Amino acid sequence: MSFYHTYERMKDFDFKIYWDGLGDADIQRALSKTTINEMDYLTLLSPRASNYLEKIAQKAHRLTIQHFGRTMQLFTPMYLSNFCSNHCVYCSFSARHNYMRKKLTLEQVDVEAKYIAATGLKHILILTGESPKHSPVSYIEDCVKVLKRHFDSISIEIYPMEMEDYNRLVDAGVDGLTVFQEVYNEETYQPLHPRGPKKNYRFRLDTPERGCRAGMRNVNIGALLGLENWRQEAFFTGLHADYLQDNYLDTEISVSIPRIRPNVGGFTPKYDVQDRHLVQVILALRLFMPRCGITLSTRESPDLRDNLVQLGITKMSAGVSTEVGGHTEDSSGTGQFEISDQRSVPEIKEMLLGKGYQPVCKNWEPLDGAAGW
After folding, report:
1. How confident is the model over 249-264, as pLDDT tens digits?
2. What is the DSSP string of 201-259?
3. What's the whole-model pTM score?
């Protein structure tokens, strides 16, 4: 069982002919349905549907309130290392770039964790460059043991692993996995990842399923918008999330919507993904998957993030640094990408409260020792 079979079924679909053949009645029909299927979702991603953003936004708002209330989960990333084995053409951490690399000691992890925990955040996302040599499973395990003293929820965004390694990390206390496919178009994928383990498209595509089978409580996926036609990439992202939600009922599935930001190497994306395009993706995804979490990072500007709070987003990062040890070390390092929203955790909380939303720093409790109830 694999999402790859779903991808194969649709990869040669003529998207342009389908979208060119849509009329206003098709958009209105998709909008009128209580539950939409994958072709309705594709319809709402069409150029013609962009004329209906206001109506789609109203429905997306209602669905988000219905399933998530006026809440917003907050988290922040912590970069443990920026050593990487891959040669991705669009990433600052790529092994192609020659600069001083860093990796936190366990003592530095503890210092960074205490600083972040003092802001009130209880959810942490730890990241490394994709180098099993420099950040082996044992190192991640040791870091998680330190972080468990300070956080209730620990997610990882590291290199794809075999299920046995995910089992080890789940046992250590990791409950969430984020893995970006980057590009769903298999032909486009190869030249963007010319060297390193990431060349293996299929292994990466199947990674979320290995995480689900290993017992991850939540799995977050996404495409990096700008590397391919954003409408098609958003479609395959939605299909992938829907596939995981249907097949792994015990796992909470969510989607991130990142766009390329300025990076070391100056890679310029081929496709221009404008704000209104990003909005259309979020709205269409909300109608297709009403119970799916949607994460918006600090790659986006403060104004855009503020406006999207009510239109489908359920999780936001705050107080972000994309540098290794960037919360407490000096800021002379190299970040993975430039962030747009540099507001602190208190500033994000204040913004949410001003909009009538409750910032949530902790939304679940593991039942350790549950035998007593």
Report:
1. 999 999 999 998 877 7
2. HHHHHTHHHHHHHTT-SEEEEEE-BTSS-HHHHHHHHHHHHHHHHHH-TTSEEEEE--B
3. 0.95
